[in-house]
């Protein structure tokens, strides 16, 4: 078999994964999903569909109730608390609630992700400047994160997630508070990371992001994968499935 | 190397951010070390003084008759059976007379015509100069009194008993202040670290999310404890040194009462106190981390 024709290795592999929150809330049901190395995938669905839970399972913020989660060659379930940093250094996550330290400056908030990998101070400075420039936040370098608007906080959260060039980037509603121009900047940053080989999983409501995208789009509903576009296809290809989706909706 | 640079920076930054509680902890640790080391210094010097005074410490056992050589051996054997001694000297009546004459010096004329055997023969027992021998001296004296041919046993009863009581008191106070040191340093540091952990909960969670190792998160807190212990101990010992110098100055000069060989701690003791305080604070920090930092 010609290696050039062989499919890229799986970066994220979920097999029959379920997550039940107590007392009995089924967040994810029997989800099986494979995302190849360097692939960009949009995860869409209504609120409560299970997008955030899926991202939390991949980053091991949650453990699945059932099934297998394999990320960057690591069995996430078997990963001990002591070794969890090995996974987290490969996965950068932009959280929906930003998870910023409001009393620290923008630079400090981004630097955290670089300090934990013992990046030299000079490189930290350089990388922060670069990211702030790309996300139009240069003037906010020394501003405390708590003093920023939600849109700015969201961009700082994204900057921190991508700061140490992780292999996998999980973005939970990354453009939820952004205007069109800033959204374009964020997407350009993601595109740049994608070109460098990063695997991206973007959970979003924003139709403009995945409409006409050449990347795979997966729709979740009630914790199940309802549909997915073909790899390297357009989400509009799913158009024919739309009536079926409507039927499933309660 | 990078790890320690980052960890030290984190610990220092945190100490600066929480300078109020850090200041309180440092003050408490310093005060505890000062109290403990003050009493320990007095205790150590009292022991030293006790050793010096011990040069004059002897039990004089007056006998009704000068014992012949075989009996001297018997006495020696019985004395050694009770306790170890530094030396035993048998003083005949004539030797006692000569000593007395020597003591009187130019006034020894008064002894003219006095028989040279008017003073009783005696055994001089020099106990080993330790605190324990001081404490046993009363019992030793009682024992010697029971030996055959003994008229009387003499020793500096009063000062020895008072001195021994003083040493005992100092020992208790030193132990109590040592316990105070242990409790305050460990509890205060544990309390400060606990407050810091609660205040930085959000940051610690975030560190975990961005891939920090457990050591990366924990070590700054242990280092913080070590710094509190080390700096606090240096502060306490520094204050004691100032106090010691001030007291020394008060007792200096030709008309002042001189302090008999009252010395400050030697370097190994200073290092040991700083090390002990540092270890205790690390222990306090460690216990807080174990209880309140859930990674």
Fold and architecture overview:
The complex is a heterodimer of chains A (250) and B (295). Chain A has eight helices and ten strands. Chain A has a single domain, classed as P-loop containing nucleotide triphosphate hydrolases (Rossmann fold, 3-Layer(aba) Sandwich). With 250 residues, chain A is an alpha/beta fold. In chain A, strand 1 and strand 2 form a beta hairpin. In chain A, the strands form two sheets. In chain A, strands 6-7-8-3-9-10 form a six-stranded mixed beta sheet, sandwiched between helices. Chain B is α+β, with helices and mostly antiparallel strands and 295 residues long. A four-stranded antiparallel beta sheet of chain B has the order 2-3-1-4. The model of chain B has no long low-confidence stretch (mean pLDDT 86). Chains A and B meet through helix 2 and helix 3 of A and helix 1 and helix 7 of B.
Compose a concise summary of this entry.
The complex is a heterodimer of chains A (250) and B (295). With 250 residues, chain A is an alpha/beta fold.
List the helices and strands and how they pair.
The complex is a heterodimer of chains A (250) and B (295).
Chain A: E1 10-21, E2 25-36, E3 40-45, H1 51-58, E4 66-71, E5 74-75, H2 84-88, E6 91-94, H3 106-115, H4 121-134, H5 150-162, E7 168-172, H6 180-195, E8 199-204, H7 207-210, E9 216-221, E10 224-228, H8 242-248
Parallel strand pairs in A: 3-8, 3-9, 6-7, 7-8
Antiparallel strand pairs in A: 1-2, 1-4, 4-5, 9-10
Helix pairs in contact in A: 3-4, 3-5
Chain B: H1 2-17, H2 19-53, E1 59-63, H3 69-82, E2 85-91, H4 93-104, E3 122-127, H5 131-145, E4 150-154, H6 157-199, H7 201-209, H8 214-250, H9 267-292
Helix pairs in contact in B: 1-8, 2-6, 2-8, 5-6, 6-8, 6-9, 8-9
